[in-house]
Structures are given as C-alpha cells and as structure tokens.
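Memo to structure team: turn this sequence into structure tokens by end of day. - J.P.
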Amino acid sequence: MVQRMQESTQDTVETVRLGNELIMHAGHSFTEIIEYVNNSAERITEVAASCEEQAAQTNEILQSAQNIAAVTEQTSASTEETASATEELATMAEKLNQLVGKL
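Reply from structure team:
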C-alpha cells in the first residue's frame, strides 16, 4: 500500500512537472504572440500614416490640376479675344487700304 502511495505520489509529481513545462511553453508562446501583435500594430500604424500622406499628396495634385484647368480656361478665353481683335484689325486694315487706294 505504501509502495502504491509512493508510486502515486511520483506519478503526481511527474504530472505536475509536465504541467509546469506545458504552462511555461504556453507562456513563451503567448509572449511571442504578443510580440507579433505589437509588431503588426506598428506596421499597421506605419501603413495608416503612409495612406494619410498619400491622400494629402493626392489632394495637392488635384488642387494643382484644378489650377491648371483654370489657367487653361483663361488662356483659351484670352486667345479667343486676341483672335477676335486680330480679325477686327485685319478688317480695319483692309478698309484703310481701300481708303488709301481711293486717294
């Protein structure tokens, strides 16, 4: 009976030792998981910052494109005005030529 108790005690000690090893292994695994999660969080933060920076640059590009469109529109209007003035001058020059021809 004493021998069975000793064997049972030894089995219990071995079971507790194995349980402690498993707990330590699980603790190390959880530490690694926490490190991976922290690294992932840092990378996500970096990606988010990069996205914000790209969005700001995209807004700047859009603003520049709108400015270019406005300048192009103004240039087009000025070109039309110049063309109209040139036609008027050509007509006036032709009339002036006719008047000079009569003299």
